[in-house]
């Protein structure tokens, strides 16, 4: 039952078409699997305000939705200047012929009402060439300050109906905001929407901070700070911005923390006497378990989504490579086999892939491989790319790219897991070490 | 005034023999200070680098840092020679404690470089201990690639950034 829309495009993705391939909805459909065709043309005319007070937000909403959808590389907007129909009544029937004439395969319409600080957004999605609505209309209620999140929620619903997969637009990114020259770089934690909007700072730049990581529910952030003069792991509550240092022994350094899927356990690196090993800690009790005992460097641990295994980096073979072991420690199996140095492995939210940093031939790459090490694919190449983080749906990877030389500067980039759609993420200053939140509730 | 310039020249000669990069040390970077007329102005708070008991002597005449090969934390002969002199100084000056900062160049991931810097700092610490300095006087910290000294992206800079720097802290004398 696939019509001309169905195969309109697809993003490269190395997993088998399994779960990704079945849409619950009509024929308007993007399959995010191997093989790339053209982005799907769509239109999102300005949402219709119920009252003049809602007019500004209504127009802004449609722009954010367009930015979300077009930003995926899977969709292409038919600009308003080309529209024949004007949507002036959210409840009125759609003139399909007018949208067919401009080749908009999908149409998103919306209505907006504002009462005091209360914002209500309704939207409908149409499969233009099938002359029918796709799914039911949906309504979101929130506050006027949260209007951008409402736009992202509409985008997530549209993306999900057309691709059959969950979206990633109503999400946030915690990162390290950087300023100043390379040898005196000021670093502080910041948080923003996934698209770079609404940046807020979480720490001052008095101490170096590194590599923040979200808790599974997005309410807390683990990071490494030199506040005491030594690298130590801190946990910060995103809502209250209260922070505390996790237990650490005198004379040790701890870094590279990451939450377990249970949200109560932290796995991290602890350096003692020059040797760096992996430990895990129960956050509330501070009880610590040593997971590795090799004289080599063990760092950059990341849990599998079910919490049963840990992928990490070790130079036990003589150069940094990727290994997987049980979450309780014990024997590890090496999964990286290519030529080069591998680091910062991160397990994908779907569980099928590991994203990593690879150093080879004087260049850095972000890549992905299956958890058995097969099907390695490099997605990027530059002077210095590192530290991948997965979008909540496992389709996009964000990372740090640093430029060369005395004026070198770090910025955030994102790339589809297919290797397509590489682009910078807007930040007010230099930026590094992004970590993508789960979808917000 | 001319005497001071001559003095600085001698210090520079010693530095060259030890093979420590002169430009790492502020006293050689500040020509104005060396040429200044104030007797105290020639030297920083750490004193005269020719006075053996001064921290300036430790930092500049002995050399406060040792350098490492790419991805290595082993000490070469030159590094051992510098550390042996550092150890003698620390043994002779028990009022000072030391923190060794380990650093890496920018070729490598953030996490790996933190661990590598920890290895380097520890290698220097272990050597000082082997030369008779009490272990409880020496702490280590790694900055990974976070605090490069030189900022170009070439081996000439990387070589200076792969370092372990011994920072003195006045323990008892303040």
In short:
The complex is a heterodimer of chains A (441) and B (174). By secondary structure, chain A is mainly beta.
CATH architecture of the largest domain in chain B: 2-Layer Sandwich
What's the gyration radius of chain B in Å? 16 Å
Work out the helix count of chain A: 3
> SS-based structural class of chain A?
mainly beta
Classify the beta-strand content of chain B into a percent band.
5-15%
CA-based shape of chain A:
elongated
Q: What does the average pLDDT of chain B come to? A: 80
Helix segment count of chain B? Answer: 7
CATH superfamily of the largest domain in chain A: TolB, C-terminal domain
Task: Write down the domain tally of chain A.
Answer: 2
Taking the sheet with the most strands of chain B, its summary is: 4 strands, mixed
Task: Kindly report the spatial arrangement of strands forming the biggest sheet of chain B.
Answer: 1-4-2-3
Outline the structure in words.
The complex is a heterodimer of chains A (441) and B (174). Chain A has helices spanning 55-71, 96-101, 147-163, and strands at residues 40-43, 48-49, 75-77, 106-115, 118-127, 132-133, 138-143, 172-179, 186-193, 200-201, 209-214, 220-225, 232-237, 243-245, 253-259, 265-272, 275-282, 288-290, 298-303, 309-314, 321-326, 329-334, 341-347, 353-360, 363-370, 377-378, 385-390, 396-402, 410-416, 423-425, 430-436. In chain A, helix 1 (55-71) crosses helix 3 (147-163). Chain A contains three helices and 31 strands. Chain B is an alpha+beta fold. Chain B folds into two domains: 1-50, no CATH class; 64-174, 60s Ribosomal Protein L30, Chain: A (2-Layer Sandwich). Chain B is 45% helix and 15% strand. Chain B contains seven helices and four strands, in the order H-H-H-H-E-H-E-H-E-H-E. The model of chain B is unreliable at 1-41 (pLDDT under 50). Chains A and B meet through strand 15 and strand 23 of A and helix 6 and strand 3 of B.
